[in-house]
Amino acid sequence: MSFLARHIEHPAELAGADIRPWPAPARRPYFDESLHQHRLLFQLMDSLRPQIEQAAVLMADTLRANRKIMLMGNGGSAADCQHLAAEFTGRFQQERRPLAALALTTDTSALTCIGNDYGFEHVFERQLAGLAQPGDCAVGISTSGQSANVLRALERARTLGLTTVGLSGRDGGPMAELCDVCVVVPHADTARIQEAHIFIGHCWCGLVEQSLAALP
Ligand SMILES: O=C(CO)[C@@H](O)[C@H](O)[C@H](O)[C@H](O)COP(=O)(O)O
Ligand SMILES: [Zn+2]
């Protein structure tokens, strides 16, 4: 059963939240409605803790084994991939060694070549197949959980012996099935989902830094 369905079946867990499909009936001006929805969504964040922490453990284990994290997503999620990869290779909050992470969204030559010659749904899968080693971790970010290029790459990642992590929204879409751990943000508005995604991404960075710092 999807995370969203579970919450709908157990409305007590929503604690009075009024999370509705978007576009919502225009009850309030955009700023007020967005702030309202954002607050409701972040009240639910603690219920995502198990999946958030499991994903961070997978990533820390990957880096501890000298393997790498590869991130992919479209549009705003492509920006999230790049943002998070930079937190790992650069620095988040602690002074520590650079950590191996790359976004498969940045190389315009690869994206246009693969997109043009093979189709846009292959842009991440083909880069991943060329770059991955068993034991790497593939991270797909998709607010709908429906983007074909992310789904294909996650499917391929599994056949190549990678671990797979998803960051999704709505009901998780088909992406949830392709991931060892998938964090599904139970909202219907892409913008609100993305705001939750970057919060979760930053938590991953902090949790991974703490985990690696705890090493002897
Ligand atoms: O940032 C936004 C909307 O807030 C857009 O750029 C959005 O990311 C794009 O429409 C994406 O193509 C949506 O893909 P996905 O999240 O459903 O995988
Ligand atoms: Zn956006």
TrEMBL record:
One Pfam family in the UniProt entry: SIS_2
Domain of life: Bacteria
EC class of the enzyme, as a word: isomerase
GO cellular component terms given for this protein: cytoplasm
Regions annotated as coiled coil: none
One example of a Gene Ontology biological process annotation: D-glycero-D-manno-heptose 7-phosphate biosynthetic process
Cofactor detail note: Binds 1 zinc ion per subunit.
Pathway the protein contributes to: Carbohydrate biosynthesis; D-glycero-D-manno-heptose 7-phosphate biosynthesis; D-glycero-alpha-D-manno-heptose 7-phosphate and D-glycero-beta-D-manno-heptose 7-phosphate from sedoheptulose 7-phosphate: step 1/1
Catalytic activity: 2 D-sedoheptulose 7-phosphate = D-glycero-alpha-D-manno-heptose 7-phosphate + D-glycero-beta-D-manno-heptose 7-phosphate
GO MF: carbohydrate derivative binding; D-sedoheptulose 7-phosphate isomerase activity; zinc ion binding
Keyword terms: Carbohydrate metabolism, Cytoplasm, Isomerase, Metal-binding, Zinc
Localization (cell): Cytoplasm
Enzyme Commission no: 5.3.1.28
Positions of Zn(2+) binding: 83, 87, 194, 202
Matching HAMAP family: GmhA
Other noteworthy facts: The reaction produces a racemic mixture of D-glycero-alpha-D-manno-heptose 7-phosphate and D-glycero-beta-D-manno-heptose 7-phosphate.
Function: Catalyzes the isomerization of sedoheptulose 7-phosphate in D-glycero-D-manno-heptose 7-phosphate.
Name of the protein: Phosphoheptose isomerase
Lineage: Bacteria, Pseudomonadati, Pseudomonadota, Betaproteobacteria, Burkholderiales
